[in-house]
């Protein structure tokens, strides 16, 4: 556990791994952005995109997060082996492409919740939650199917409690008679 497989900014490892058991985590600037789970390949993009030159250095750091077992191949040896076995190479490329799609889906599974935290952060920075902002937050939660517990978790992440949020909303509400008249806060007498 904790063993670094690849460090961001370092030259690309010329090996491909398949995780048999355990888990690997991927981080960028110290923040976890992904996981490699049993059955997942790691670093297989080298064999999928060899001609595209995706980069000479790792963009993320990868390390084992617990006791793990892997199967490892040197990229050059595996590539040479597959040159004379086009059917096997095609099947592996299909498997790798599907695996990359699954990793992308896992990585993006919480994208809406992360975006909601950012939206909430922007609204709370003013110290008030107006009716328009409150309605927008409700709309975002409904459209993106963000459950109430994610809203509460987002508040906690930003240092607020649910009662504090409710108080900010209440403080920002127009008086009942303006809401009843639907005057948008503008009162003029002629």
Could you describe the 3D structure shown?
The protein is α+β, with helices and mostly antiparallel strands. The protein has 2 domains: 4-108, Jelly Rolls (Sandwich), CATH 2.60.120.10; 111-181, no CATH class. It is 47% helix and 17% strand. It has helices at 45-48, 75-83, 86-108, 111-124, 131-143, 148-157, 162-172, 176-181, and strands at 4-6, 15-21, 24-28, 31-36, 41-42, 61-64, 69-74. The strands form 2 sheets. The chain has a 4-stranded antiparallel sheet. The protein has a 3-stranded antiparallel sheet with strand order 5-2-7. A hairpin with a 2-residue loop joins strand 3 (24-28) and strand 4. Helix 4 packs antiparallel against helix 5 (131-143) and helix 4 (111-124) packs across helix 6. The N and C termini lie far apart (75 Å). The mean pLDDT is 84.
**Name of the CATH first level of the largest domain:** Mainly Beta
Class by SSE composition: alpha+beta
- CATH H-tier superfamily of the largest domain: Jelly Rolls
Per DSSP, the total helix count is 8
Using the coordinates shown, work out and report the CATH topology of the largest domain: Jelly Rolls
Largest sheet: 4 strands, antiparallel
Radius of gyration over C-alpha positions, nearest whole angstrom: 25 Å
User: How many domains is the backbone divided into?
Assistant: 2
Low-confidence stretches: none
What CATH architecture of the largest domain would you give?
A: Sandwich
Helical content class: 40-55%
Mean pLDDT comes to 84
Protein name: Cyclic nucleotide-binding domain-containing protein
Organism: Polarella glacialis (Dinoflagellate)
